[in-house]
Amino acid sequence: MSSQINDNGYFQKRKLRKHMVHLFLLPAAVLYGVFQLYPLISAALNSFYSFNGFDKDQFIGLKNFIVLFTEEPYKSTFFNAFKHNWIYFGVTVLTQLMISLLLALIIHSKIKGKELFKSIFFLPKLLSVIVIGFLYSLILNPTRGALNNLLEAIGFEELTRPWLGSMDTALFSVIFVDSWASIGFSMLIFLAGLQAIEPEIFEAAKIDGANWFTVLRKITIPMLGPSLLVMSVLVFIGSFETFEYVYAMQGSSGGPYYSTDVLTTFFYRLAFGTTDGGQSIGLGSAIAVILFIIIGLATTIMLLIFRRKDFDR
Amino acid sequence: MKYKKLILFMILLIASGMLFACSDKDSKSSSSEENVDVIELNLYSWRPEDRKAYEKFIEVFESENPGIKINFQPFESTEYNTILTNSLVSGSGPDIVQLRPYSGTKSIADNGYLTPLNDVPGVMEIEESFLEAAKGSDGQVYGVPTTLNAGVIFYNKDIFEEYGLEAPETWDDLLQVSKELKNNGIIPIAQAGRAAYLLSMLHGVISPSAYGGNDYVDEIIAGNTDLTDPKMLETLERMQEIEQYFPEDFIALDDNDVQALFYAGEAAMYINGDYRLGTFETNAPDMNIGVVPGLKADGPNNPLVMNWVDGSYGVVEHSEHKEEALKFIEFMATKEFGQLFSDELNRLSAINGVEPKHELVQQITKASEANTTPYLLLVYFGEGSPTTKTVFEDSLQGMYLGEITKEQVLEDAQKNVERVATEVE
C-alpha cells in the first residue's frame, strides 16, 4: 500500500516536472510571440488591406500583390530592386565567401600571430553599420575621398570615379563595404569548420604525395560542406534582407536613380514614406510578405539540396 | 511542493510586474492631481535644432497664461511622420502637433485627428494662400502656418566683387555670371544631386520665370495643361544648360559637401531654401553672403519668389486639454509670436505685418510680398505613393546620369499624376 502511494507521488512529480518544462518556455515564448509572430502575422494581414494613411481601410484581397506586379511605377521598381538583390547575393558569394575562406585557410596554417589577425579581420563586425556607412561615404567621396586621392597619388588617375554617384559602381561599392564588414564573421565559421577536420586526414594526404591544391580540392572544400552550407544560406538571407548599408550610404531611395534600390528600401519607402509623404502600408506589407516567401522558399530549397548531398556521411 | 512554490513565485512575479506597470500610471495621475492647477500640454515638432527658440516662445506664452505648461518634444525630421502617425492612432501623446504642409495636413485632418481652427482669433487673418497648406479636404483650416520658406540663390559677395560681377536678376544673367566665374576657375554653383530633393529645389528656383509663373500654375490646376507642356520642357532645358556650372560629379555629392565648397570660397553660389541662412551663420559667421530671392521673367517686373509653407501647428481632436491647446494656437497666430519667431530663427513668418530683423530675411520677405509663386511640385504634386514630386526628382537624377531624356522625365511625372488620381479615387 505504502509503495503504491510512493509510486503515485513519484508519477505525480514526474508529471508536474513535465509541465514545469513548458512553464519555463513561457517567457521566451511570450517574447517570441510579441516581437516575432505578432509583427509577422500583422504584416501578412496588412497586405490584404488598403490603408487611408492611418488605419486599415478595407479588405482588398490580393490587390496589393497584383498592383505590385502589374502597375507602374511599382512593377519596374520591384523587378529592378529584385534584380539588385540577386546581384547582391552573387557578388557577396564571390567576394565575401571566397576571401573569408582564403583568410580562414591562411589563419589555419601555421603562421605567426594568427590570433591577432583573427581579431583584426573580425574587428569591422563590431562597428555600427551607420558608422561604417558614414566612414565609407567619406572614403568614397569623389572630391575629397581617400580612395580617389590615393589612386591619384599612385598614378592611377584614370581609375578615379564618383563611386557612390555612378550607376555603374554604386551598387558594387555598397556590396564591397558590406562584405568588408562581414568577412570576419564568415572567416570564423570557416575556421571552426577547418578545425573540425581531423589533422590525420591532412597528414595521410601529404604522405600520399598530394599537393596543397589537391588537398584543398579533394579534402578541405568537401569537408567544409556544412560550413559552406551555413554561410551560403546566411549570405542569401542577408542579401535579400539587406537594408542598413544601402540606407546608410545611399538613402531610402536607393540612389542614384534607383541603382542601389533593393526590396527592403522599396518596402521602406512604401511602408514609411518620405518627409514628402507617399506612405502605403498595404503595398509595403505586400513586399514584406513576398520577401518572406522568397527567403523561406530559397532557404528550404538550398537546405534540401545540401541535405541530399549528405554531409554527415 | 517545491514546484508549487516555484509556480507561485512565477505567478507573483508576473503579477508584481503588472502592478508595477499600473503603479507607473497611477503615480503619473497622482502627481498631476497634486498640481491640479497646472495643465501640461505636449507639443510635437520635427525641429530639434530650434529647441532654444521654442523654449523662449513657450516662456512668453506661459508667463501670459499661468496654469498652462507646454512640453516641447522635438523628434528627428526623418522619423517624425512615423512617430506622429503612431501616436495619433494609439491616442497617446501630443496635444499640439506640427503638421507637414499641404497633403501632409490633409491626410491627418481627413481622418478626423485634428480640430478645426477657423474660429480661433487671428487664424483667418493669415494670408489665404498660406492657409491652403493647412486645410483638410472639407476646406476647414486645421493648422496655424508659422514658417514660410523661399527657394533662393545665395551668393558670396566677396567673390562677386573680386570679379566685378553683379548679382544675377534673370536667367540670362545667371548663365552669364556663371560663365565668368567658371572662366576664373571658380565653381559657379555649389549644387549637390545625391539627395534628389535638391534637384527639385533647383528646378523650383530657376523655372518659374521660364514657365510663366502663376499663369501656368493656374492653368495646370484648372486642368487645361499638364506637366508635359512645352513650357515645362523649357524648364528642363534650363536644368540641362546649367549643369556645366555645377561641381564635377555633383550627383555623387551631398548637400554638406557643396556647402563646404561654398564656405571655402571654392564655389560662388548655392541654391536652396532660405532656412540655410541659419546654417551659414553658425558654420561661416564671417562670410559675406548676398541673396537673389528669385529670377525675373523677361521685361520690367519683380523677381518671382518661390514660396511654400514649411509647416503649421494644429490641435489633436482627442486631446484632453483642447481648450488650453487652442489658447496656444491663438498665441501662435498673433503678430507678437510671428515677430518673436522671425527674430529668433531668422525665418520668414507666415503672420501678416511681421518686420524681420535680419537684413536678408527682410529682402526675401519684401520680394515675396511683391511677387510670389508656389513651389509647384511640392504644393500641387505632393500626393500619392510615391508622390509625383518624388518621381519627378528621382527622374531628374536619371536625366543627369544620362539614363533618361528630359521628355521621359515629364512623361514619368505625368503618368504618376494620372495614377495618383485613380489612387485617390
Number of strands of chain B: 10
Helix percentage of chain A: over 70%
- What is the number of independent domains of chain A? 2
Poorly predicted ranges of chain A: none
Under CATH, the homologous superfamily of the largest domain in chain A reads MetI-like
Query: Which class of the largest domain in chain B in CATH terms?
Result: Alpha Beta
What string, H for helix and E for strand, traces the elements of chain B in order? HEHEHEHHEHHEHHHHHEHEEHHEHEHHH
By secondary-structure content and strand pairing, the structural class of chain B works out as alpha/beta
CATH hierarchy: architecture of the largest domain in chain B: 3-Layer(aba) Sandwich
Coarse shape of chain B: globular
Descriptive account of the structure:
The complex is a heterodimer of chains A (313) and B (425). Chain A is an all-alpha fold. Chain A has 2 domains: 2-46; 63-309, MetI-like fold, CATH 1.10.3720.10. Helix content of chain A is 73%, strand content 2%. Chain A is built from 13 helices and 2 strands; from the N terminus they run αββαααααααααααα. In chain A, strands 1-2 form a two-stranded antiparallel sheet. In chain A, helix 2 (63-70) packs across helix 3 (74-108), helix 3 runs parallel beside helix 7 and helix 4 packs antiparallel against helix 7. Chain A is flat, with a radius of gyration of 26 Å. The N and C termini of chain A lie far apart (53 Å). The mean pLDDT of chain A is 86. Chain B is of the alpha/beta class and 425 residues long. Chain B has 2 domains: 37-148 and 309-364, D-Maltodextrin-Binding Protein, domain 2 (3-Layer(aba) Sandwich), CATH 3.40.190; 149-308 and 373-424, Periplasmic binding protein-like II (D-Maltodextrin-Binding Protein, domain 2), CATH 3.40.190.10. In chain B, helix 8 (197-206) crosses helix 18 (388-400) and helix 18 (388-400) runs antiparallel to helix 19. Chains A and B meet through helix 1 and helix 12 of A and helix 1, helix 3, helix 4, helix 18 and helix 19 of B.
